[in-house]
Each structure stands twice: as structure tokens, then as C-alpha cells.
Design a protein that fits this description.
Helices cover about 45% and strands about 15% of the residues. α3 packs antiparallel against α5. The chain has about 300 residues and is an alpha/beta fold. It contains 13 helices and 7 strands.
Length: about 300
């Protein structure tokens, strides 16, 4: 049984409270302060990191990556992660790196702030076990602020890596941070389901913590686009939350309701048959491998 299947009076009460906008804003504001304070207590310099990014001149960075002709799909114009403007704002883009450090510090008791790096390394270990040869061209779909993209570049230094994302704000931060680290990564402002990139031009298409933020139709479209973009024998890889993990199946329903309040498509992701979706998009049956107590990777070869 998955967490999405469990409901109860407490969950219904939480849902009713969150439906009252002023109360929801108050709860999220207090939760946000708690998250930031907890992050800093464990050694994540959240506020300092954001102040340093705020001080940069972002106009030129934004102009360099933004496609002014792009029309955002309706599903993307939602609040995500308690940001009312979703991913289309600077605050979310400036905070995503420290938020990842904070959230993933909870994956292993002994990891602390190394939890994020451990998660990415375990994912790359799975990739290296399943790829027939080191990829020469890698696409990171839904790359956000480039954390997963830079990690892929480190894992496959011989590859030309491209990051694609719908948020020009996240891409601007990605471009800036990659330049700081002298990483030669290409960035593209586009939806993952319609990238505009040439067919058969990649050996690996990767999506790291993207699918839980998508309605099923978009997830399926991204898999079809990945198939179009891959060379013969290329691989698609999806690193995501594992709906069968005990952390979710045993999560109290009211806690799961709170989680869903910041993840509008979580129910759709948890009910998605990823293996079937991959095969319907033109891939062989995927191999699943755990990457943390809460996550798994699915890797599939193009037919």
C-alpha cells in the first residue's frame, strides 16, 4: 500500500486548514523558518548563501538563457515547494542548492550535509554499472539550478553535458555557478517534453528528482522526447522518490498531506507505472536500483 492510498480525519482536517489561504500562508511561513533554522544548525549556511547570490547582477545572466518566445505549459504555472510563483522566481533559484543539502541530510543518520553528495554518487554508481560505455553526450532534463548537471559533468568528464529547464531563473543560476566552477556545460530554456534539440544526439538522458513534479502526461511526453533524442542503444535514467519505500508507506497520512501541499503532482507520480511508461515510450524494460532509503533509479535502453 502506498501513502497516497491512506486517508483519515486528521488528513482531512489538515487539508481543510490548508485550503484557508491566510492560515496556509502562516503555516508555510513558520515551516519555512523552521527549515532554514534547522539547516543552519546542521552547518548549511542558508542565509549567507542567499545573500551572496542576491548581490550578483542577474540581468545579464537571465538575458543569456531566457527564451522570450517560450510559452509555459499550464502544469508549470503552479506553486511548488511553498513558493507562490513556483519555479519562476529568484528566491527559489537562489535557495535550491542549500535546500537540497538540508533535505538530503536526513537520508542517512551518519551523512549530515554530505547526504546530498552521497545520493548523487549512488545514482552515478548505478549509471556506470548499466551504461555499456562512457557517454559522450549527456542531457540533464529538468536541470534546475544545475546541481545534477554539474554532478553529471564530474561523473562523466569526457562528455558534453547539456542542461534543459523551464525556469530561466534556475538556468541563470546554473550558468553562473557552472562558470564559477569552470564547467563547460550548455544550457537551454525549454520544456523537457519538447526540447528542440536534434534527434539522435545523446547517449544518456537523465532526469534527477524531476518526475514527482510532473503530471503523468508530461512525464510520458518527456520519455518520448528522450527516446527521440537518444542515439541507437542510448539510455534514459530517472532518479526519483521510491513510492514503495517505508518512509512513504509508513508516513502518517497527515504528514503526507502536508508534503503534497508543496508538491502538486505527487499523487500522479506515486500512481505512475514508470516501467510501463518507459516501455510505451520505446524503451526496454527498465532496471530499478535503490539510491537511498527513499529513492531509486530506473535505467532503460532505447529499443
Amino acid at each position: 500500500m502506498t501513502a497516497t492510498a491512506r486517508t483519515g480525519p486528521v488528513s482531512l482536517l489538515v487539508r481543510a486548514v490548508l485550503a484557508i489561504a491566510p492560515l496556509a500562508r502562516l503555516i508555510k511561513a513558520r515551516a519555512r523558518k523552521t527549515i532554514i533554522d534547522r539547516a543552519e544548525a546542521m552547518g548549511v549556511p542558508w542565509r549567507q548563501h542567499v545573500r551572496e547570490l542576491q548581490a550578483h547582477d542577474w540581468d545579464s545572466e537571465l538575458a543569456a538563457v531566457r527564451d522570450p518566445q517560450l510559452r509555459y505549459p499550464t502544469y508549470y504555472l503552479q506553486a511548488f515547494h511553498a513558493y507562490r510563483q513556483g519555479n519562476l522566481n529568484w528566491q527559489a533559484a537562489w535557495e535550491v542548492e542549500v535546500a537540497s543539502l538540508s533535505v538530503h541530510a536526513q537520508l542517512w543518520p551518519q551523512a549530515g550535509t554530505d547526504g546530498d553528495a552521497w545520493l548523487r554518487q549512488r545514482y552515478h554508481d548505478v549509471l556506470q554499472q548499466h551504461l555499456p560505455a562512457p557517454p559522450q553526450a549527456v542531457l540533464d532534463v529538468g536541470c534546475g539550478a544545475g546541481l545534477s548537471t554539474r554532478a553529471l559533468q564530474d561523473a562523466f568528464p569526457q562528455a558534453q553535458v547539456t542542461g534543459v529547464d523551464l525556469s530561466p531563473y534556475f538556468l541563470a543560476v546554473a550558468r553562473y555557478r557552472s562558470r564559477q566552477q569552470q564547467a563547460a556545460i550548455a544550457w537551454k530554456h525549454a520544456p523537457g517534453e519538447d526540447t528542440g534539440l536534434p534527434a539522435a544526439s545523446f547517449d544518456l538522458v537523465s532526469a534527477f528528482l524531476v518526475f514527482h513534479e510532473l503530471p503523468q502526461h508530461a512525464a510520458q511526453a518527456i520519455l518520448r522526447e528522450a527516446r527521440r533524442l537518444l542515439r541507437p542503444g542510448g539510455q534514459v535514467a530517472v532518479m526519483e522518490m521510491n513510492p514503495q519505500a517505508e518512509a512513504y508507506t509508513r508516513m502518517p497520512p497527515y504528514v503526507f498531506t502536508l508534503l503534497k501541499s508543496t508538491e502538486p503532482y505527487l499523487d500522479e507520480y506515486f500512481s505512475l507505472d514508470l516501467a510501463q511508461a518507459m516501455q510505451e515510450a520505446g524503451f526496454e524494460p527498465p532496471t530499478f536500483a535503490p539510491t537511498s532509503p527513499r529513492h531509486r533509479a530506473a535505467v532503460a535502453r532505447a529499443c
